[in-house]
Automatic annotation (TrEMBL):
Residues 217-522 form the Sulfatase N-terminal domain. It is found in: Cell membrane. Keywords: Cell membrane, Membrane, Transferase, Transmembrane, Transmembrane helix. InterPro entries: Alkaline_phosphatase_core_sf, PEA_transf_C, PEA_transferase, Sulfatase_N. It comes from Campylobacter vicugnae. This is Phosphoethanolamine transferase. The chain crosses the membrane at residues 7-29, 35-53, 65-87, 107-132, 144-161. It is a multi-pass membrane protein. GO terms for biological process: lipopolysaccharide core region biosynthetic process. One of its GO terms (molecular function) is phosphotransferase activity, phosphate group as acceptor. GO terms for cellular component: plasma membrane.
Amino acid sequence: MLLNRKLWYIAIVNALLFALLEPSIEWGLKQFFKIFFQTFGLFFCLFYLFSFLPTKFKNILETCFVLMYAFIGIVEIFLFINFSNYLNPIFFDTLLASQASEAAEFMQSYFSLNVALALLGFIVASILFFYFPLKFNPKPLNSKVYFILFIIISVAIFSKGTKYLEDERLRLGGWFLTIKDGITEQNRYLNEFRELAKTLDTQMQKDYNLTTTLNIPKVVLIIGESTQRNYQSLYGFKLDTTPNLNSFKDSGNLFEFNDTISPESYTNPALAKLLTFSNYENSQSIKWYECMNIIDLMKIAGYKTQWFSNQEAVSVFGNIPEVISDRAKIREFTRIGTSIGLKNDFDEALLDVYQKYRVKADKEFHIFHLMGTHMAYANRFNKNNENVRYFDIDELKDAKLDIYPNGDKISKKGLREKLDYINAIAYNDYVVSEIFKLYKDENAIVFYISDHADEVYNFREHKGHDGGANASRYMIEIPFIIYTSDKFKSSNPQIIEKIKNAQNKPLMSDDFIHGFMDILGITSEDFEPSRSIFSDEFNTNRVRIFSGKDYDKELKN
């Protein structure tokens, strides 16, 4: 029979998913019935064509569509409960850029009791829909009636078929476009970057206009992950989560910058702007991979470039840190390949990697890429490390960190995750400080900055960095710190003065590379003094945009 349960199931699921996003019940019901009839009509025509195939193939095709919609339903319900949204290019781009363990941890972090009950309800309802006996068995329509309906519906639906897909009224169509465009775009820019990289060693070093005056022997960049500065006692947090950083500050070796944000809340776009001359203003006219990157810049300046990472060497489809790190002369990871396990090596493993693989030279540029405080937070700190002072639930309650600013109580689950994040921050303090110590006897300067932040139950029952409609300041307020050894301080007093004068200036990290060059005495054809936080020409009035909002006017306070 053409009007079977499979057809009804697809139409109901598609309409239900679309209607859930509507702001009111009344409007949601209107959308449900509207999308239901459109979907029903479209698949009626498709199933009508299937009816001319052998029964076996017809049943296989119909079942495939049902299974696809069941899978879409499961994924979209998961995303809707956690993010009030469905699969979109941002979510899919994040998936493509994620390592296997990150994707697994993402599922672990967001799989709550509410999600489990909702998904179980959907699965049970789907099974009952197909196996619950019906007393009402209408007679099949005449084949001529089916044909007439096919013609009428085909004309009505397919005359606006493109619009139907563009509006994503058909969730299967929306998924197809998102996945196709995402994979195509990801592969395109990664392949183009690799092609451009082939010419960088010869053409760019010969033609790129760069001068350097200071020749600082040891330059280090530590890239954090998902670290929000508001949870660091260095920036005023109630609990002493950064005792080591505080100690370096007290000794005069550390300088924290108090008003730094990321332009993005996802690693790929954030690091594309942090590690190249791509920025918010030029990103629409020039691709990030067409810009000079920080590693090739330092190679041209005469530095031996070395990349040490505790993130996996291979992601699902490749990512920006992966291809940029490939430009380094030496690239070492705490482990090779991907992992489906939920626990990476702790960041302290980088200390051994450094000792084992570091190659000494007159001028060295080292990058440490941390796992930092990436969710799942409980997996980001070594509970057996006795050098770290961890906290417990009672200490959070004593500090009134179990209460939101409006007086509401944080849920038990939220408080547990908040505690894990705080302990990950404490562990991160240990790791970053140990990296500083590697250079304490050298003439060295170390920059530490996070790619983006995570909002972690700061003012609502929410964690993550999803941006969009959920955007908040806590997803982009990141630590930016400079450590200088005693040798560096004594030989570069003018640089120390420039650093001190810049600590309270407003910075968005897509301008980081300009300040980085300024401090190192490097100028090039891409350097802009108005974008260097250490320059007297720095533009303190730059509008800082995140998720389409003016950070200083709409998000900061």
